Amino acid sequence: MRISTTCICSFIIFTAGMLQGIDAAQGKYAQMLFNELFEGYSNALRPVEDTDMVLNVTLQITLSQIKDMDERNQILTAYLWIRQTWHDANLKWDKDRYDGLDSIRIPSNLVWRPDIVLYNKADDDFSESVNTNIVLRYDGKITWDAPSITKSSCVVDISYFPFDSQQCNLTFGSWTYNGNQVDIFNTLDSGDLSDFIEDVEWEIHGMPAVKNVITYGCCSEPYPDVTFTLILKRKSTFYIFNLLLPCLLISFLAPLGFYLPADSGEKVSLGVTVLLALTVFQLMVAESMPPSENVPLIGKYYIATMTMITASTALTIIIMNIHYCGSGAKPVPQWARVVILDYMSKIFFVYDVGENCTSLQCVGEQDSESETTRTSSKEQGRGEGRRKPLSKGRSSDSDPLEKLREGGKDGSGFPGKNARDVVGCCSCYRTLIKNIEYIANCVRRHKANHAKGVEWKKVAKVMDRFFMWIFFIMVFFMSVLVIDKAR
Ligand SMILES: *[C@@H]1O[C@H](CO)[C@@H](O)[C@H](O)[C@H]1NC(C)=O
Ligand SMILES: *[C@@H]1O[C@H](CO)[C@@H](O)[C@H](O)[C@H]1NC(C)=O
């Protein structure tokens, strides 16, 4: 056991020593190579054998992370790895002369570099990219990997926010050389997304690369560039939960304002509260959007909802006026009686004021009002003639009065004890009858007025119910429309 351990140990030491020796040898050769290569080398000039020759640069982008997408300022901040490859005609060597040394890594500022920049850069500091090392191969091939945080301008179209997708162009090209001096190619058809760190807000749907050659009017030289188009799709769950659903729920409250009893005095304030809540949401959206002509989808939804709620509040005010028409008003017109009280009340299941509240019936029973009122109100509920309970033909209503009158006329019907009393008090009975008739007329008129008020109240109630359903349907369809866009 001990022997074997010693053996392994000595083997490791031996191997390490040999490797060190090789390293030392390579280091020596690398030093020699470096001295020889860079003797008289200038990194200022384009390294081609013939000045007429074009130098080909290939470009490959790896997208590592999307750091920020600023819709308001239309700036995309991304973390990229930029790999550029080209051949330097002045940096070649015969690897056999240098003990098989086929590549060296040296700081990139020692060699000539193509001045490839991001054309649509939106950064305020034009700082140079990081001075990372390059890999120089014996045949002059140089590979330069540079990490870079780019801020690029990106035309953001927020028409479908929060269900939008965006396309951001990253255009790379040489700043000073034209296409006859430095030509640029893309290695692959698309940017590399294999190292992409998943973004919380955006899904990546590809990053195709195309080479464009632009020839400006003034000069005959072509100017090539490589454009990477980053296709982004917004993950809208966050916005659905924070902007859309609250608005949806609030907007469903608005039609319920029509259901609120008029006497609660809360009808208008409910509408106004809902309107204010929506305004807050709209401001939140407007703050994060660029002030462009395109109104985002959610903004349109807010505006439509707000318009609807304004309309509903205005209608509520009008209906409140109808509700409080009261006894001084004109009677309900015939057409309204037919259309609203007969047909619409049946369609919308409106029976009578307070009819569907059981508690109100209990109150009615305890009420000191006579049986007559309740009977009449029930008959009104059945939609039979409104005037009927008030007509003189009703027996229960006019019976005592009739009896009294008859009694006054001939005295026979009156339950008096003897005839002398009846004759003596005949004139005083007459006055009494007159007064009672007057009181009865007053009561009758009062009842008629009250019935008129009740009728107007019912008109208001039917209209309330009608608009409630109309607005419910509108809210529902608007919600369906906006959710439909989400797919
Ligand atoms: C550069 O690329 C063009 C087109 O692919 C090719 O014709 C040309 O030979 C290349 N030049 C060099 C120096 O490799
Ligand atoms: C982005 O680049 C592509 C390809 O060059 C081009 O068709 C498109 O118009 C560009 N988009 C913008 C907004 O510049």
Automatic annotation (TrEMBL):
InterPro entries: Neur_chan_lig-bd, Neur_chan_lig-bd_sf, Neur_channel, Neuro-gated_channel_TM_sf, Neuro_actylchol_rec, Neurotrans-gated_channel_TM, Neurotransmitter_ion_chnl_CS, Nicotinic_acetylcholine_rcpt. The chain crosses the membrane at residues 238-261, 268-286, 301-322, 466-483. GO terms for molecular function: acetylcholine-gated monoatomic cation-selective channel activity; transmembrane signaling receptor activity. Gene3D superfamilies: Neurotransmitter-gated ion-channel ligand-binding domain (2.70.170.10), Neurotransmitter-gated ion-channel transmembrane domain (1.20.58.390). Its main location: membrane. Residues 32-235 form the Neurotransmitter-gated ion-channel ligand-binding domain. Belongs to the ligand-gated ion channel (TC 1.A.9) family. This is Neuronal acetylcholine receptor subunit alpha-9.
